């Protein structure tokens, strides 16, 4: 998880066991043996769009047992203020250790056309889980819901199986624009969007995030991961589209997230309070204790150089921006921040993880060098 777990005191616990068939991926956390209560009912995941199945399970305050079909992604949503949430998953009869799910600090600015009242955790990629237990601190919040998703794959996902070599990932000489995977290439369902894109007047910053998924996904898993994030952001959190403008996978490939035109100043829902003058890019993975590879650093540098140069910004410089209200900077406060910063610079979060955050100075230097060479 992003940071060390909270001190767990007395809780109102929503205990959920979801028994499912065996999955295809290995568990992502150390396991301990534990007996599983006998499931009382069976819940089926329904088709949620091309190459994706899902189900939303309303959680009661008491212990609850739910039997379901296989899933690989887990999130929790509710109405109201922040909560401490942790989960553990079961695979092949063994339970993982508890894993904290941080409350999302991504989101649309308050007062925007897509601001929503639903609160949610990060959407975790858990691999081959056949059960999940959810522990929520404090009184049970309203509308407490467990979200289970299973990216089943599509024929077009096969194109993502082969990872291009370093040469193939480079743009043509003299061009800053990176090679971009289109929304169509990862199977973005147009009907999930709500309304047209909104646009900023300019781009002053690039905010860097991580998605807090595990780091052991395969190249062919990436389109399904993107579809899961898209579905969670729209159907469960109530946003108009994917929150991030772009996403970078651990293989160094850059994908278009939010619709509206990669070259344009599309307003995202990635950095609460600072969406109106920026673009947001999330690296798929968790980088609190794992360092990003050189391809990730190269992809972030290329994308940031391209977006900032189009608006005359220095990737290695600093800018003055107004906050539209975050948990770190109140509405109307003017702050000076790096043109390329981490999510933690604007919100009270550990995102984008300590090891990725430590690489941002290198991203700034490389991005500035790319702009100077164009």
Features:
single chain; 374 residues; alpha/beta; Lysozyme-like; 2 domains; 6-stranded antiparallel beta sheet; 6 helices
Describe how the helices and strands are arranged.
Blueprint: E1 16-19, E2 31-33, E3 42-43, E4 46-49, E5 52-58, E6 64-68, E7 71-79, E8 85-91, E9 94-96, E10 99-101, E11 118-120, E12 124-129, E13 131-136, E14 142-150, H1 166-169, E15 180-181, H2 183-186, E16 205-210, H3 222-236, E17 246-248, E18 254-256, E19 278-283, H4 294-309, E20 318-322, E21 334-338, E22 340-342, H5 354-357, H6 360-373
Parallel strand pairs: 1-6, 3-6, 15-18, 16-19, 16-22, 17-19
Antiparallel strand pairs: 2-9, 4-5, 5-14, 7-11, 7-12, 7-14, 8-9, 8-10, 8-13, 17-18, 20-21
Helix pairs in contact: 4-6
Tell me the count of domains: 2
The secondary structure category is: alpha/beta
The total strand number stands at 22
Helix content: 10-25%
Low-confidence stretches: 1-30
The span between the termini is 39 Å
Give an account of the 3D structure.
The protein is built from six helices and 22 strands. The chain has 374 residues and is of the alpha/beta class. It folds into two domains: 16-150, no CATH class; 156-373, Peptidoglycan recognition protein-like (Lysozyme-like, 3-Layer(aba) Sandwich), CATH 3.40.80. Strands 4, 5, 7, 11, 12 and 14 form a six-stranded antiparallel beta sheet that branches. A six-stranded mixed beta sheet has the order 15-18-17-19-16-22. β17 (246-248) and β18 (254-256) form a beta hairpin. α4 crosses α6. The model is unreliable at 1-30 (pLDDT under 50).
